[in-house]
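Dear colleague,

Thank you for sharing your sequence with our group. We've completed the structure prediction you requested, and as agreed, I am returning the results in plain text so they can be pasted directly into your records. Please verify that the sequence below matches your submission; if there's any discrepancy, let me know and we will rerun it promptly.
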Amino acid sequence: MVVAANLGFPRIGCNRELKKALEQYWSGAISADALLSQGRRLRAEHWRVQQALGIERIPVNDFSLYDHVLDTAVLVGAVPRRYAGAGAAELDTYFAMARGLAGAAGPSAAAEVPAMEMTKWFDTNYHYIVPEFEPGQRFSLASTKPIDELVEARQLGVAGRVVLLGPVSFLLLGKMPGGQAGPLSLLDGLLAVYGELLARLAAAGAVWVQFDEPYLALDLTEETRQAFSHAYHRLNQASSDLSLMLASYFGGLGDNLPLALSLGTRGLHLDLVRAPRQLAEALPLVPSSTTLSLGVVDGRNVWRTDLDRALALVEQAVDVVGSDRVEVAPSCSLLHVPIDLEQETHLDGELRGWLAFARQKLAELSLLARAANEGRTAVEQELSASRQALADRRRSPRIHKPEVAARLSTIDPSLLERHSAYPQRADAQRKRLGLPRLPTTTIGSFPQTPDVRKARADFKAGRASPSDYESFCRGQIAGTVRAQEQIGLDVLAHGECERNDMVEYFAEQLDGYAITRNGWVQSYGSRCVKPPILFGDVARGQAMTVRWSSYAQSLSSRPVKGMLTGPVTMLKWSFVRDDQPLELTCRQIGLALRDEVLELEAAGIGIIQIDEPALREGLPLRRADWPTYLRWAVDAFRLAASAVRDETQIHTHMCYAQFADIFDAIVELDADVLSIETARSRMELLDTFRARGYPNEIGPGIYDIHSPRIPSRAEMEDMLRRACSCIDADRLWVNPDCGLKTRRWQEVIPALEAMVAAAQAVRAGSS
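Please find the predicted structure tokens below.
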């Protein structure tokens, strides 16, 4: 019989219970026992949901209090030495690695520890904690989490499939300082720990273990190929009592398909959403003992599955290998989609009919398994409903706008060019802005306090009038401007108190987007985002930011930045339509933002920041596909930014990315000022910009806003001097590494004061 399987379930809970519990624990409002108890409740609920929906292969150990890569580092004892004094409790060390450790009584080298680096999980907006290894790293089985959660599931009647991050991908996701040997040199020591873990899982009653090896979808070196072969030879030997499912996702295996099939695991998962054609390539090569897991339901997007198309792939596999060797599954973990569409009662029936969240996707999998086992006639009513929903979506007048298509047809290369080259623009901007050397600023957002969130919620719910909300926002903006002036910042921001999220705020005001109320997904730790649904052609009806930016500028003689989210980030951080090329949709957004940029300039705003933190995230997994993507991504940004006069300064911001991969594209953006996250790597990322000669201005983040610790002036001064050793001080800006919306004012003010003092000290020393 064809089996319905799942690779992973969202962790946060339908009502973000995990987020709330984490933040209560960090604030001291609840105990560690209460936090762990909430985790157990969520796991039990998620297992019951999957059982009720007919999922037979239910994942265990897919739950995490912060991040599954961090969990794996702790599991194998890869805890950097600086956390040895983080606290007596295991949770203290765990969260110190994720968030840093603030001193109890002011700055102290012994008491304050920075967090580990964080970066994007392949081409998603999920962030993982980067493992740190040292030469000669010793691993040990330092946690029993997978075993404990397996036992927990079995006690609830769930014969779960344990999910582990595969050893090769784990090592490749990490970093190791200098020297000739890379992380893969540590493989044998790590495999010994995995072998011990597999033995203990078998003793605890495990039957299947899922090894996630997403690196199999990437271009591999010969060293990496040999590492995979060696690793799975060892793991198969260590798991004679277990069945291993090798899972890769986010793309096709491509030239790694023969390698994956040669690794000898009992099962192999294929992402047939991103790469449906690989099934036909795989079927003739599948060993007679191998079970195929078919990822036919999209784990990355919210659109209802084309059940006929998915079922055709399932039937194709069954015809070749038989029904007892086929599983139907999502393309990847459902971590990346919201939990339940049933909560979105405010969406109209037509739009809801096009969508499927995690629970609905699991129901689709059960239906596909039933159709494969009982025949199409057994589910013909459901198949017919699916066909009708897809047809309704294609025909809907909400999808296509002739005026948008007409405007797209007028784009020519001249619209992508600034009037003058950067050196001429820089002269004009210096004369207009009159900024000092090493100008100080922030990335844009300021704390979203409970009062701010309550006022916005009251306004949206109709409990506050538009005039009351307008007055509240003006008061917040005025207070934020005053605070920045008192701190001594050179370039100000209005603080974004009116914005719930940097993408959702704009999506609410653009045609072609729909907003959910509970469509939350995890970005990292307790940070959840609610991606809008981009379902149709994008157009801008009226100005979105001009009145708030203009009001803030009227309060100060210092420049106030206009703040926009760039077209690639608007695209990538939405659940984007799948009925036309991404390039076309991105260009539509670029045109809408171009109109906003010109209105900001006309209103007298001299600095406009167009953030593109998702530029690297959108990079395809295979290098051969990079040039095409980067060309249209850069063009979309330039379409939005290039119409302004020379004296108007364009900024952009990027964070948590491997900048070396996109360096040439960053240069091609031709932003006057680029701000980037560099704090967690202690300016290591600037090496690329120095070595390759970045030509424009740059603001490397000199402190980590994702940690509650407040760095000292001396620490930030040291970071800034490091930056000055890489980039000429005349082209350097001074800023935090990201926006401040998630921090408290009690943290923000002293941190920014120290940052300004550090800039003044370095400025004086370099004059």
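Summary note from our side: Residues 466-487 form the longest helix (22 residues).

Kind regards,
the structure core
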